[in-house]
């Protein structure tokens, strides 16, 4: 396994790339603040003729994600389209009538906006949709163990609208829906995941990008998670530019290259990314 370089600029690896599928959280913002250099890099790539689709495990529809980006100061010029795991989850809910228990904070309720949904408590629900923890500032997945045990006894399927285990919020890591879903799976529950690293979100993003371009082209994925961004890119046969400023920042602190042993330590049996970069810049 060859050593991995740290590159300084997106342009170092974007030559010949036509389409970028970029993660959002950890790449262009940290949940509280936008990263201007990253936004400028994507905008420059588009100005040079490239197509950018933001691909996110946000458990909200794309228009809600866009409103959040506006609040953080991310301009529409940085991307052509957004595809979210929330969009795919909405499709599932719309196609599967029945009573629903929604686990997650109020801010994620847009995931069922405009849908005919019958809500029910745990004892009467047919399906659980999890967008996150009710209070991700104070709770941990273990707080849901008793609830999940009751769901398992009723053999309820759990639809995970965000496969991320953790995500950045400023300088902290907070738990996401994926942490609850993985706990339910270890207990023996049925879990259906929507979002990265699973193919449907990539299929939709690539379909949008190719429709916008009027054809295909070389694709580069950008992200900061081994479990979702890198694994998803590998599953789709895509090159991945891996950013180290995100959820793995502590592991990469002080490094400017990875030798063979370090590549194995960080990525194990997972195919390593095309290159590493601390923070996205043109």
How would you describe this structure to a colleague?
The protein is an alpha/beta fold and 282 residues long. It has two domains: 163 residues, Rossmann fold (3-Layer(aba) Sandwich); 107 residues, Rossmann fold (3-Layer(aba) Sandwich), CATH 3.40.50.1000. The protein contains nine helices and 15 strands. The strands form four sheets. Strands 4-3-2-12-13-15 form a six-stranded parallel beta sheet, sandwiched between helices. The protein has a five-stranded parallel beta sheet with strand order 6-5-7-8-11, covered by helices on one side. The longest helix is centred in the C-terminal third of the chain and has 15 residues. The mean pLDDT is 93.
Tally of contiguous helical segments? 9
Helix share, percent: 25-40%
Return the average pLDDT rounded to an integer.
93
Classify the beta-strand content into a percent band: 15-25%
Global shape: globular
CATH homologous superfamily designation of the largest domain: HAD superfamily/HAD-like
* Strand neighbour order, sheet with most strands: 4-3-2-12-13-15
**What low-confidence regions span 5 or more consecutive residues with pLDDT below 50?**
none
Give me the count of strands.
15
Order of helices and strands: EEHEHEHEEEHEEEHEHEHEHEHE
């Amino acid at each position: 396994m060859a050593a991995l370089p740290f590159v300084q600029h997106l342009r170092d690896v974007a030559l010949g790339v036509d389409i970028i599928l970029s993660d959002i959280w950890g790449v262009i913002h940290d949940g509280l603040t936008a990263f201007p250099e990253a936004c400028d890099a994507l905008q420059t790539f588009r100005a040079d003729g490239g197509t950018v689709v933001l691909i996110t495990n946000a458990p909200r529809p794309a228009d809600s994600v866009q409103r959040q980006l506006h609040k953080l100061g991310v301009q529409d010029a940085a991307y052509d389209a957004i595809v979210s795991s929330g969009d795919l989850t909405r499709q599932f809910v719309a196609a599967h009538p029945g009573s629903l228990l929604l686990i997650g904070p109020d801010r994620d309720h847009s995931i069922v906006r405009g849908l005919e949904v019958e809500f029910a408590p745990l004892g009467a629900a047919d399906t659980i949709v999890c967008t996150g923890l009710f209070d991700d500032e104070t709770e941990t997945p273990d707080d849901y163990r008793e609830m999940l045990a009751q769901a398992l006894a009723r053999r309820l399927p759990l639809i995970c609208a965000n496969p991320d285990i953790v995500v950045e919020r400023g300088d902290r890591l907070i738990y996401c829906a994926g942490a609850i879903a993985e706990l339910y799976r270890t207990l023996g529950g049925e879990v259906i995941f929507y979002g990265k690293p699973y193919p449907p979100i990539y299929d939709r993003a690539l379909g949008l990008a190719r429709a916008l371009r009027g054809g295909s082209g070389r694709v580069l994925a950008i992200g900061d998670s081994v479990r979702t961004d890198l694994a998803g890119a590998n599953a789709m046969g895509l090159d991945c530019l891996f950013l180290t400023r995100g959820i793995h920042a502590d592991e990469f602190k002080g490094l400017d290259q990875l030798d063979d042993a370090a590549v194995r330590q960080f990525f194990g049996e997972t195919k390593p990314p095309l290159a590493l970069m601390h923070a996205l810049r043109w």
